[in-house]
Each structure stands twice: as structure tokens, then as C-alpha cells.
Amino acid sequence: MSKLSGTKKKIYDASVKLFAEKGYKATTVREIAKVVGIQQSAIYNHFKNKEAILDEIIDNLSNSHLINLFEDKEPKEIYKKGKSLLKQVSNMFKLISYDTKTDLLFRFMMQELFNNERLRIFYNEEFYQKNVKKLSIVFFMMMQDEMIESMDPLVLANEFFSPLFFYQLQIVRLKADNKSTAVAATLFEKHTDFFWDRIRIKNEKKDQLF
Amino acid sequence: MSKLSGTKKKIYDASVKLFAEKGYKATTVREIAKVVGIQQSAIYNHFKNKEAILDEIIDNLSNSHLINLFEDKEPKEIYKKGKSLLKQVSNMFKLISYDTKTDLLFRFMMQELFNNERLRIFYNEEFYQKNVKKLSIVFFMMMQDEMIESMDPLVLANEFFSPLFFYQLQIVRLKADNKSTAVAATLFEKHTDFFWDRIRIKNEKKDQLF
DNA sequence: TATTTAAATGAACAAATGTTCTTTTACTTT
DNA sequence: AAAGTAAAAGAACATTTGTTCATTTAAATA
Asked: Domain check: are A38 and A119 in the same one?
């Protein structure tokens, strides 16, 4: 997407912004053109029609940082990091909600989720399933290594994932009203602390001191 | 809302359905009229304009079951119920996502969240803050009664609330594609089990048997 | 029953919107 | 410099959409 002709990229970026802020249906071709600084008819030199812009945005979601919580590293390599790995994942969610590009993509995704089946498929497969499965593999390995308690890894992955998603939604929603996100932002770390502290297998020697 | 003239209620219900399924902007007055079975002009005998329908729906969200997780009971009366109270709250979320009326309201709320400031205020104050605060009071009392471990009650409330919200969104999304919700539905209970088991203060006598 | 009121119809309008087409401009290639 | 190509502008069109209005129909009231 980065190697597009200047104008096409501008149209694309303006559309992401407007679709995220107002929704696809409420955004007009004239508005997009105005943001780019061209005539509405010029848009059709770069995209077949309005829907083609939408399709291209959805196509490119897979390449965004929206979904790469693990930076493409394999579970085997990283599970030993324990809590700091979870901190890292939690931080990725936080970054997504604060980065000015990915937060628009997240908002766009939530905005159009119920209006676009392809987007629901992306959300389910790439954003949710893929990450939760990877998380559950990591948790499974942690269990085998007796770092954390044994239980259904998939349930555990969902329990770790879902608050992060929710807090992310909170941040993006608060930003939509230019409200302070400070309190909500602390919940990312507090979640990881709370979560890890309740699943980790505690050092018995330490415990017996009490 | 129930004591409206027949036609007004029909318009209202059809609008909720269509707004939830396609979004406010994408729904036309002619579509609403078609679902009701009248001419589009007849709608204006009951509502000033299209936006007035939207406003009335938002006004009435406060009266819906969408937000009453506790059935108006006071924390003092209910905190002693412990886990079964959490089960009950968890079940309310599940019911909302399966009830054919409230699931439309929830979908409507998520659909229009970023397009309507009044809706965001409702979401924040009535749906989120109110329930999380009530939850944190309940948790605080449980802590004082030494039923659960001591920690920040508000963090705990968020940790309990957020997965339920997420699973609710999952159900509604899956239903949008007529997919099976069976797996997602089990997560409501598993969340409560997981959560309670990790915060409750365990009976020491029992524990010492091991 | 006669009269008033409310609600539905059918036609129409004005504005908005996606899209197309022709012309003009600007840049690249030979 | 000339020719060719890509992109922008400007005008226009066909639909869609929210809304209005005069007229008819139905229901309630006196």
C-alpha cells in the first residue's frame, strides 16, 4: 500500500479516516475528494467506485499492526519470558489504541463490523482466532513448564485477551469525545498484573515463610 | 414505550430492527415503512423526522434490560450470595445476547456507538460506569467480609465485566452470520468459574488436607 | 347521525449522492 | 520539440432519499 501513486495513497488515507470517524455509508465521495484536495471525479481515476476503496482497506488490514500481537515470533521462543511476554502483548493493545494510524483502523473495524461480512471474517479469523490460538499455545507451554497452573488453555487465552480488547475499545471511544484516557490506560497493566498473579505457580519456599 | 398507538410502536420496532441490522444511515424511511406495511409519508404522522425515531430509541435504552444487571437490588442485600451472584450477572449478559429484543438493542448500540454522542454518553454512564461501580461496591463488601482477597475493587470490577462484554459481542456477531454460538456461550460460565476461583479466600482447613 | 379529529395515501419536490463523460492539463517518452 | 499517456477538472445525469402537502379514509365524539 505504501508504493501507491501519491494521490491514490491520499485518497486511501482520507477514506480510512472518514470511514473510521463517520462510517462508510455516511461518508460521501465529495468529502473524500475535499480532504484530498481534488475534484470528486478524479477519484475514479484511481478506484473503480466507492466500494472499491472500502474493499482495498479491508484487504490491507491483514498487513496492519492491528493483528500482530507477537511480532511474528514463535511460541516456543517466547513462552519462557512468562509475565514479561504478557506485558508485551498487553502493551501492543495499548499502542494500537494510541497510534494515530492503527487506532483509526480499529475504529473503522468496529464501526463497520456489522455492516460488512468480509470484515467480520477478518475480525474473527485474523484479529480474534489467530491471536487467541497463539496465546493458548503459549499458555499451554507455560503449563507444561510448570510456570502457571494447569487449565484449559483456550479459556485462559480468552480471559487474557478479552479485557485487553475491551480496554482498547474504551480508549478509542474516549478519544472520540476528546476525553481523558488516563484511567482507562492504566487498566492494561493492571490486567496483566492481576492475571499473572492469579495463574502463576508460586515459589513454595517463599510461601512457606508466612 | 409499550403504550404507543399501534402504528407508532410498529414504526419504532421496525426501526430498531433495521438500525441494528444495517445502521441508521443505511436504513431508509421507505424501508421502515415497507416493514410496517404503510406508505413512507405516514411515518411523519408519528415522528417529526427520521432522526426523531433514532432519538426516541436512545431515550428508551435506559428502560431496557440492557443495563439492569442486578435487577435493581442493593449491594448490601446481595453481596453475601458470593459466586452465585456473579453467576447471575454473567447469566444476564448471556440472556441479553440471546433475547431477540435486547440483542437488537445491543447490536444497535455497538453499531451506532461512534456515530452518536448521546449514545456514547449512554454507553459510558448507564451501561459501563453504573454497572462497574455497582460491581465494585459488591466486591468491596465481599472483601470486608473476607470472602475474597483484598485488592482495588474497581480494577476487579473491570476484570469481571470486560470478558462478559466481549463474549456478548462475540455472540451477537456470530448471530449476524447465523453461525453457531455454542462455544462462545460456554465462556460466560467458564469466566465466572475461573474468576471466582482465583479471587475467593479458600477455606484453610480444606486446603491443609493436601 | 353529523361533526370533528386522527391517520393513511399518493404524488411531488428539493437536495444529496454515486457515477460518467468530455475536455484540459501535466508529465513522460521517443 | 512532438507525441502519447496518465491524471485532474468541470459539467452533467440518473437515482436515491428525506420530507411536505393536499386529499381521502377511518375512527372518535358530540
From this structure: no
